[in-house]
């Protein structure tokens, strides 16, 4: 069943973000990342919804996504606009864009690349979210090194990674989406 709602486009650190209303987010099958297809002001899209990571007393977790420039242009939408959205969870995961540093490391390890080519798009999202969920370039490089080692050894997903937290450091702090 499609989930229909209206939401205001907000800006966090120069990114345009659409945060789902809590009541709409509750209708999703997971508190963690969820792939959806839908429309924004009638324009079709497919995207990954990220968890906002907001838990605790008086807080209800929700989801968010970053509409790309093409979708915003076609939907005639900008920061501050209230948009009409319809989404529906899908089991057809889109491939994430592989960061250049990770791709270079995969290229240098044929065995890790071979397993990467065999795992699902969902597993790719898990690895990429785990790698990017750090504050410093040094820690990011450590995550890439560990990922390559684990892929080389046959591990298909990162262990000990909580999918219910916000893993995008550009718009989050302490694993929670910043307030706009």
Summarize the structure.
Helices cover 31% and strands 26% of the residues.
Structure description:
With 180 residues, this protein is α+β, with helices and mostly antiparallel strands. It has a domain at 3-91: Elongation Factor Tu (Ef-tu), domain 3, CATH 2.40.30. The protein is built from six helices and eight strands; from the N terminus they run E-E-H-E-E-E-H-E-H-H-H-H-E-E. Helix 3 (100-107) packs parallel to helix 6 (137-152). The chain is globular. It starts with a strand and ends with a strand.
Radius of gyration: 17 Å
Q: List how many beta strands DSSP finds.
A: 8
Number of helices: 6
Question: Spatial order of the strands in the main sheet?
Answer: 1-2-5-4-3-6
CATH topology type of the domain at 3-91: Elongation Factor Tu (Ef-tu), domain 3
Task: Report the uncertain regions.
Answer: none
Q: State the CATH superfamily name of the domain at 3-91.
A: AF2212/PG0164-like
What is the overall shape? globular
* Secondary-structure element string: EEHEEEHEHHHHEE
| Percentage beta strand | 25-35%
CATH level-1 class of the domain at 3-91: Mainly Beta
CATH architecture of the domain at 3-91: Beta Barrel
Sheet with the most strands? Answer: 6 strands, antiparallel, barrel
Query: How does the helix and strand content classify structurally?
Result: alpha+beta
What is the first-to-last residue Cα distance?
30 Å
């Amino acid at each position: 069943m499609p989930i229909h709602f209206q939401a205001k486009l907000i800006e966090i650190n120069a990114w345009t973000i659409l945060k789902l209303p809590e009541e709409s987010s509750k209708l999703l099958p997971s508190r963690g990342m969820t792939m959806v297809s839908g429309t924004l002001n009638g324009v079709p899209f497919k995207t990954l919804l990220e968890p906002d990571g907001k838990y605790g007393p008086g807080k209800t977790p929700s989801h968010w996504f970053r509409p790309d420039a093409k979708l915003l242009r076609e939907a005639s939408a900008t920061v501050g606009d209230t948009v009409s959205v319809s989404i529906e969870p899908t089991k057809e995961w889109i491939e994430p864009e592989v960061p250049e540093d990770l791709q270079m490391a995969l290229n240098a390890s044929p065995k890790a690349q071979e397993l990467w080519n065999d795992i699902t798009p969902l597993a790719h999202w898990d690895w990429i979210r785990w790698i990017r969920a750090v504050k410093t370039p040094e820690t990011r490089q450590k995550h890439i090194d560990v990922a390559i080692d684990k892929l080389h050894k046959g591990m298909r997903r990162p262990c000990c990674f909580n999918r219910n937290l916000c893993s995008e450091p550009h718009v989050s702090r302490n694993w929670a989406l910043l307030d706009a």
